[in-house]
Design brief:
The termini are close together. This protein is mostly beta strands. The strands form 3 sheets. Strands 4, 5, 6, 7, 9, 10, 11, 12, 13, 16 and 17 form an 11-stranded antiparallel β-sheet that branches. A 4-stranded antiparallel β-sheet has the order 3-8-15-14, with no helix packed on it. The chain is elongated and about 75 Å long. Residues 1-5 have low confidence and may be disordered. It is built from 2 helices and 17 strands.
Length: 202
């Protein structure tokens, strides 16, 4: 979610304040214009009966975008078998770092080519950068998605063996994103593809 507030400059506000010392501050609110932009992930041809499993509920409640009701936050949300044999897991770092990971756990026998997603909503421009990351602009700000770290393993282990790393990257075709892996990657082992989304607001 990106937000931009348009309103009077400090000089204009000072002039306006002199004119309305005894008036309500509602005038100032009316002068401001709030613009919200939301970049939305859309996964293509997913399993219609996917199982959603939240994990690690956080304290407190939150507001988000235009939602009127308070929302709960979780440290992880798993979409089991979003594609046959493939789970999608969203996780937060938990160290105050803005952003989140969206990780694919690809089990033996599943098809990597099934994974395809788009950026919709307020997404205006998608670029594959020289470092292998993605830049997606909303017209107000941008999000950046790191080049995926991919490795063999059961799931997100902070101490994974560097020798188990697999070179991977994004493939961008118009507004459709998929992943690229080496031809010789071992499809008989569980593989995790693990990008990180940064700068999720303004």
């Amino acid at each position: 979610l990106h937000r931009k507030v348009k309103g009077p400059t400090p000089e204009e506000k000072e002039k306006e304040e002199k004119k309305r010392k005894k008036k309500s501050k509602e005038t100032e609110i009316e002068l401001r214009k709030v613009i919200d932009k939301a970049i939305v992930f859309k996964w293509i041809n997913t399993n219609a009966s996917v199982e959603v499993l939240p994990g690690g509920q956080c304290d407190g409640i939150h507001s988000y975008g235009s939602l009127k009701a308070p929302a709960r936050a979780f440290r992880s949300i798993s979409y089991k078998n979003i594609y046959p044999g493939i789970d999608l897991v969203f996780t937060t770092k938990g160290d105050g770092q803005a952003g989140y990971e969206f990780s694919y756990v690809i089990r033996p026998g599943s098809n990597l080519a099934d994974i395809k997603f788009q950026f919709v909503g307020s997404a205006k421009r998608i670029r594959l950068l020289d470092d292998g990351s993605l830049s997606v602009r909303s017209g107000i700000n941008e999000i950046k998605i790191t080049k995926p770290a991919s490795f063999y393993g059961d799931f997100l282990n902070d101490k994974f063996n560097l020798n188990e790393m697999v070179n991977s990257g994004f493939n961008v075709s118009g507004n459709e994103i998929s992943f690229i892996l080496p031809d010789n990657f071992d499809s008989k082992r569980t593989l995790v593809i693990d990008p990180f989304v940064t700068n999720t607001n303004n």
